[in-house]
């Protein structure tokens, strides 16, 4: 990947402004592709440090749009799917610190393509959407409020291997536990999404 010489021109110009009322920069001509690559005016941003800087001020709007927002500026960017990709998963036993003599329980922590670590729990849920056309599962985990990481196929395979049946609202479903929270990932016993993921 190459870095466009004008990568941060518009965003940097706004960010360098003196403290005052937040300046609306409009469209920043930035795009996050489905594979997690950031682009500026059609050219990939090659410096991971710069991408991480931009990602640190990324926010979700009430209308579903995405903006880069600092105390002095904000501008809209395009996100094709999710702004992050979960590229690795770590399994460990953990215990509830508020329970006397706690029993170990499963905890699942994910690493994103920008090396941010997030553990699935009530504030960082795992969800699985189904593509309306292909019927393929599209798994995500919440990284920050309104911002998700798409769980890549290899990591989803690992997640599927940990799936167990549970009854939720009277329905049999397959899912995974993390930090004492159960996350459904497919209907049971059919397991259509899981079978498609394994194809």
Number of strands: 15
- Enumerate how many helices there are, as a single number: 4
Radius of gyration: 19 Å
Give the percentage of residues in beta strands: 35-45%
Succession of helices and strands? HEEEHEEEEEEEEEHEEEH
**Cross-sheet strand order for the largest sheet:** 3-2-1-6-5-4
N-C termini distance: 31 Å
Average pLDDT taken over every residue? 85
Characterize the biggest β-sheet.
6 strands, mixed
Structural class: alpha+beta
Oligomer: single chain
**Percent helix range:** 10-25%
Unreliable sequence segments: none
Judging from the principal axes of the Cα atoms, what is the shape?
globular
Describe this structure in words.
Helix content is 16%, strand content 45%. The chain is an alpha+beta fold and 199 residues long. The radius of gyration is 19 Å and the shape is globular.
Helix/strand layout:
Blueprint: H1 9-15, E1 23-32, E2 38-40, E3 43-44, H2 48-56, E4 58-60, E5 66-69, E6 73-79, E7 84-94, E8 105-112, E9 117-119, E10 126-130, E11 137-144, E12 147-151, H3 153-161, E13 164-168, E14 171-178, E15 181-187, H4 192-198
Parallel strand pairs: 1-6, 7-12
Antiparallel strand pairs: 1-2, 2-3, 4-5, 5-6, 7-8, 8-9, 10-11, 11-12, 13-14, 14-15
Summed up, what is this model?
The radius of gyration is 19 Å and the shape is globular. The chain has 199 residues and is of the alpha+beta class. The chain is built from 4 helices and 15 strands.
What characteristics describe this protein?
199 residues; alpha+beta; 6-stranded mixed sheet; 16% helix
């Amino acid at each position: 990947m190459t870095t466009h010489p004008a990568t941060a021109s518009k965003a940097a110009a706004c960010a360098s402004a003196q403290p005052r009322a937040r300046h609306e920069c409009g469209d920043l001509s930035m795009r996050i592709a489905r594979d997690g690559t950031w682009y500026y005016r059609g050219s990939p941003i090659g410096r991971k440090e710069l991408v991480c800087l931009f990602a640190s001020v990324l926010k979700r709007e009430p209308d579903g749009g995405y903006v880069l927002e600092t105390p002095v500026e904000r501008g809209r960017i395009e996100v094709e799917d999710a702004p992050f990709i979960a590229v690795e998963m770590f399994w460990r036993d953990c215990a509830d610190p508020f329970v006397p003599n706690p029993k170990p329980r499963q905890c699942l922590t994910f690493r994103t393509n920008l090396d941010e670590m997030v553990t699935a729990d009530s504030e960082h849920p795992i969800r699985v959407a189904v593509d309306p056309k292909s019927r393929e599962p599209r798994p995500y985990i919440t990284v920050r409020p309104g911002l998700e990481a798409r769980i890549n196929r290899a990591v989803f395979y690992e997640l599927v291997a940990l799936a167990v049946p549970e009854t939720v609202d009277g329905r049999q479903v397959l899912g995974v536990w993390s930090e004492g929270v159960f996350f459904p990932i497919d209907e049971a016993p059919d397991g259509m999404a899981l079978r498609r993921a394994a194809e």
